[in-house]
Amino acid sequence: MVGLNKVIIIGNVGTDPEMRFTPNGNPVTSFRLATSRTYTTPEGERKQETEWFDVVTWNRLAENCNQFLTKGQRAYVEGRLRTRSWEGQDGQRHSRIEINANIVLFLDKRPVGTLPETPETGIDTAAEEDLEPGDIPF
What are the tens digits of pLDDT across the range 81-96? Predict the structure, then answer.
């Protein structure tokens, strides 16, 4: 029987990404991602519930997350669940479920002016501000 270990979440980055390196020099970046849902109780009271996820990225994806993600941004994360266990300084066994991400999409639009307008990039951010819905050809 073939198994499947895949998780997809969209949420808000809860901590600034933290990058470190393995002894072999591979970059690893971790951050926390929060997802929330709002529901109504049988008594009619609206409540919000938040789940927190630990996300780990590797290599080039780790470098990109460290460079471009910040606390508060929205992100799409796709990967697999992994349980990590260790023995703490107190001698007790600890474990944590992490998302080992292979895809992270940055969902928030970059603020205007973060990309330079240069002949090499061909990006003209000022032109985006003057667009009207009727100007779009589709």
Answer: 999 898 988 889 999 9
3-state SS, the chain, equals: CCCCCCEEEEEEECCCCEEEECCCCCEEEEEEEEEEEEEECCCCCEEEEEEEEEEEEEHHHHHHHHHHCCCCCEEEEEEEEEEEEEECCCCCEEEEEEEEEEEEEECCCCCCCCCCCCCCCCCCHHHHHCCCHHHCCC
In a domain, 14, yes or no: yes
**pLDDT tens digit string along 48-72?**
999 999 999 999 999 999 999 999 9
pTM, rounded to two decimals? 0.72
Counting the structural domains of the chain, the total is 1
